[in-house]
Amino acid sequence: MKNLGYRAAAAALAISVLVWLPAVGLAGQADDARAAYMAKDYSEAMELWRPLAKGGGAEARAYLGVMYFSGQGVARDYGRALKWYTLAAEQGHVGSQKDLGVMYFFGRGVKQNFGEAAKWYAKAAAQGNVISQTNLAIMHDNGQGVAKDLSKAAKWYRLAAAQGDPYAQNILGARYQFGKGVGRDDGQAVKWYTASARQGSALAQFNLGFLYDSGQGVKQSFENAAQWYAKAAAQGDMEAQYRLGLFHTRGQGVGQSHGEAAKWYGKAAEQGHAISQTSLGILHAKGQGMARDLVQAYKYFSIAGENGDEVGHQYRDLIAKRLSPAQIAEGQKLAREWMGRHR
Q1: First and final CA of the chain: distance in angstroms?
Q2: Is 143 left (phi over 0), alpha (psi -120 to 50) or beta?
Q3: Mind listing the pLDDT tens digit for each residue in 107-162?
Q4: Continuous segment of H or E residues that includes residue 110
Q5: Could you give the CA distance from residue 306 to residue 289 in angstroms, rounded to a whole number?
Q6: Are 13 and 70 in contact (CB under 8 A)?
Q7: In this structure, what is the dihedral angle of CA atoms 220, 226, 227, 230, given to the nearest 10 degrees?
Q8: H or E segment at 338?
Q9: Distance between CA atoms of residues 112 and 102, nearest Å
Q10: Are 110 and 101 in contact (CB under 8 A)?
Q11: Fold of domain 1-163
C-alpha cells in the first residue's frame, strides 16, 4: 500500500509580506509598487521597490528577491535573488526565510546546502509558514541537513496539517496508521486521510478507500471504499484503478460489471500495473466485458510477466497450450510492440 509520496521543497516562491512603512511618503511608494507588481508592470515595480530595498525595507527586499529569481522586470539572476532574500530573511521576513531555504535546498545561486536549507525552513516554520513546516518535516524524514528524526518530522507534519496542508494531512494519516514517529492510531489515520481526501489528494483518497475496504479505524464499507477508490482512480492513481476494477469484477460496493472492470484494469495496465495486466488478460481469456480473444490474453499475460507478475507468466504458459504457433507468434509480437510503446 502506498502512503508516502515525496514532495520536494516547493519551487514556487510565494511572497509573504512583512509590512515596512517607516514614513507616509514611503508607505505611498510601497502601495504604488505593490499595485504595479499586481498589474504585472514589473519594470515599474522594480524601480519603485529598489530604493525602498536599499533603504532597509524587508518587504521591498523580499519583492526584489522574487523578481530576480523569476526574471520579472529584470534578467533572471539567482545570485541577486539570494542577496535580497538573505537580507530580508535576516530581518525576520517569513516568506524570504522560506524562499532562502528553497534556494539552498536546490542549489540555486548558491552551492546546495541542506543544513542551510533546514536552518531557514526552521525559522520560517517557527513563524507558522506551512510550506516550510512540511519541507522541514520531509528533511527530518530523510536526514537531510538535520538528524533523521521521525518524531520531529511528525511534529512538523502535524502543525502543517492543522493549517490545512493536504500533503501533510495525508502523510500524518500514514504515520498514525503505521505508528511511525507517533503512536499507532487508526482513528487519527482516518481523520487526517479524510481531511486530505476532501481537498482532492488522490493518495489520501486511495488510502481512505483502503481503510474502508479493510475496516481499519472505521466500520468496513465496500460502498465507501468504492467511492474513494473512484475519486482517486479518476485522478489517475493506478492502484485505485486496479482496486476499482477488482470491485467491479466482484460486484463489491458497486454493481458487477466486467465492462467497467476492463475499463479500470485497462487504465492501470497502461501505467504499468502488472496485476491489472494479468487481470485484463483473464477477462480476454474468458470473454468477460469484451469478445473472447486468446491472443490478446497471451499478450497481456506476457506483459504482466515481464513487469514482475509471475502469475502472468504462468497464465501465459497455460494459454499457449491452446494456441497455434502462428497465434503465439502474433501474441509475442503484440506484447513486444506494447512494451516498446510504454518504455
Answers
A1: 24
A2: left
A3: 999 999 999 999 999 999 999 999 999 999 999 999 999 999 999 999 999 999 99
A4: none
A5: 25
A6: yes
A7: 150
A8: helix 325-341
A9: 10
A10: no
A11: 1.25.40
- Cα(338)–Cα(341) distance, rounded to whole angstroms? 5
SS3 (DSSP) at 209: helix
Q: Which helix (H) or strand (E) holds 2?
A: none
- pLDDT for residue 24: 41
Which residues fall within 8 angstroms of residue 317, CB to CB, at 6 or more apart? none
**142: Cβ–Cβ under 8 A, 6 or more apart, which residues?**
148
Q: At what angle do helices 150-162 and 166-178 cross, to 10 degrees?
A: 140
Closest-CA residue to 297 (of 314, 307, 235, 119): 314
Distance CA 332, CA 323 (A): 12
Handedness of CA 26, 32, 38, 41 (dihedral sign): negative
Element of type H or E holding 186: helix 186-198
Integer angstrom CA distances of residue 31 from 20, 28, 60: 11, 5, 11
Q: In degrees rounded to 5, what are phi and psi of residue 308?
A: 110, 0
Question: Domain residue spans in the chain?
Answer: 1-163
The whole-number average pLDDT for the span 219-223 is: 97
Q: What is the pTM of this model?
A: 0.86
Q: What is the pLDDT of residues 164-186, one digit of tens each?
A: 999 999 999 999 999 999 999 99
Q: Which residue has the cell 535573488?
A: 81
Amino acid found at 330 = E
CA 70/CA 279 separation, integer angstroms: 48
Q: Are 213 and 220 in contact (CB under 8 A)?
A: yes
- Chain CA centroid to CA 239, Å: 15
Grid cell in block for residue 45:
515595480
